[in-house]
Write a structure and sequence with these properties.
The protein has 431 residues and is an alpha/beta fold. It has 16 helices and ten strands. The strands form two sheets. The protein has a six-stranded parallel β-sheet, sandwiched between helices. The two termini are 33 Å apart.
């Protein structure tokens, strides 16, 4: 458990919504393109949050920050996000999370290491965090404390990638999808694809299809700006969501990545589409959680439906091996969080140690001045003055309660390396 943050220090905190806590509709409302982030950061600065970054992806929109008053900062960030989405703070709060201290640190490490994604190990999130970091640094919203936290998170993510094979999972899934499409349709440069939604796994599969030779890919999304942004990234087409039926007629590969808690594609739609396609087969990949594809489609002739689990079975070995890799990655994160927290606590103790050193030096000089050339007198004076304040505090604690006195005595013994019997130091004299 994290020790209490010293007065004047800043707590790590995270406030936001993600694929587990909120609806897609809410995430779409608070979503920010990169060009919109600087203005939002300026709003946070005006509210009183001076050290923060924004992570805005298909699966999450969250603010990672440092602040001396986490309660106040959480309220300011929640209000800014609610204003951004045009929703009541109460509505946002019901679907949001607010983390602080060690819990926030672990969350940031898990996100950066791609262990908090819909598909564990997906490769985009580290780049998304670094992009948010760059925008925040350019806006003057990254101080030494947040910088140290993010650099520690990057180090943890690097260990996860190099010491486990967790990152191979999503890449293997995308490659398996491309292989199955080639088996169904033949040469990929003769087929067309449609990406419905902008989820990371859907994006990864679309990237793999394009790399394998698919030349005609179209992105659509209920929020047109999000389709346009991803189409620019993938260097492909985009279309309005109300054109979905026409897109399905032309689509040999349909990749679903909405996760809107209702079916984007139904069996009735596919029956009608296949008739217009002259019964050319369709390869449908449902990457969304919950699924975008009505299960009944799997029974429609010439519609071949795969979800992430199906593709994973094609691509990877048994479940036990995958869970073992994930557990190893989580242990790495735990180790890195502990190391970061320990270093942070040690840095927090430095000012107090420096102040103690200055105080003792002043007592030493005063004792020398009072004793003149008498070294024995000087040492007696120094010892007496060093012990005066601790003795007064111990006597005062004795009038409080036994538990407080005992705790103070234990701390004193530990600080000076004394044994419990009062018989001297555990260390060698002269050290």
């Amino acid at each position: 458990m994290m020790a209490e943050t010293p007065k004047g220090d800043r707590w790590p905190l995270v406030v936001g919504v993600n694929h587990r806590s909120s609806s897609m509709v809410l995430r779409d409302r608070v979503f920010m393109e990169d060009v919109e982030v600087p203005a939002f950061l300026e709003c946070l600065r005006a509210a009183g949050v001076e050290e923060a970054l924004v992570l805005s992806t298909c699966d999450r929109v969250e603010v990672q920050a440092m602040h001396a008053d986490p309660d106040a900062a959480t309220g300011w960030i929640m209000a800014a996000l609610a204003e951004r989405g045009g929703v009541d703070v109460a509505e946002l709060d019901s679907q949001a999370y607010a983390l602080r201290g060690e819990t926030a640190v672990r969350h940031i490490f898990m996100v950066t290491g791609a262990l908090d994604s819909l598909v564990v190990g997906e490769p985009h999130v580290l780049g998304q965090v670094k992009a948010g970091h760059r925008l925040a640094r350019a806006a003057g919203m990254v101080d030494g404390r947040l910088e140290a936290l993010l650099q520690a998170a990057y180090g943890s993510a690097k260990r996860v990638r190099t010491e486990t094979s967790i990152g191979e999972r999503p890449v293997s899934i995308a490659a398996a999808a491309a292989e199955l499409v080639a088996g169904l349709h033949g040469e990929l440069n003769r087929v067309s694809g449609v990406l419905i939604g902008v989820g990371d796994m859907g994006q990864l599969i679309a990237e793999q299809m394009l790399a394998e030779g698919v030349r005609n890919f179209t992105v659509t999304h209920p929020t047109r700006a999000r389709a346009e942004a991803l189409a620019r990234m993938l260097n492909c087409h985009h279309a309005a969501y109300d054109q979905l039926s026409e897109l399905l007629v032309e689509g040999d590969i349909i990749v679903c990545a909405l996760g809107r808690r209702s079916h984007a594609i139904t069996a009735e739609m596919i029956h009608g589409v296949l008739g217009r396609r002259r019964h050319r087969p369709m390869f449908v990949v449902d990457t969304a959680v919950p699924g975008d594809v009505e299960p009944a489609i799997d029974r429609v002739d010439r519609a071949f439906v795969y979800d992430i689990g199906d593709l994973e079975r094609v691509a990877l070995e048994g479940r036990a091996g995958r869970e073992q890799e994930a557990e190893g990655a989580r242990r790495i994160v735990d180790d890195e969080v502990t190391a970061f927290q320990r270093g942070r606590a040690e840095r927090a103790a430095v000012p107090a140690v420096s102040q103690l050193r200055v105080h003792i030096e002043s007592l030493r000089k005063a004792a020398l001045a009072d004793a003149g050339t008498d070294a024995e007198k000087a040492t007696r004076l120094l010892i007496g003055r060093l012990l005066q304040r601790p003795s007064e505090v111990l006597r005062r604690k004795a009038f409080d309660d036994a538990e407080t006195l005992a705790a103070t005595e234990r701390l004193l013994l530990e600080l000076f390396g004394l044994n419990c019997a009062g018989g001297g130091s555990d260390d060698n004299e002269g050290d």
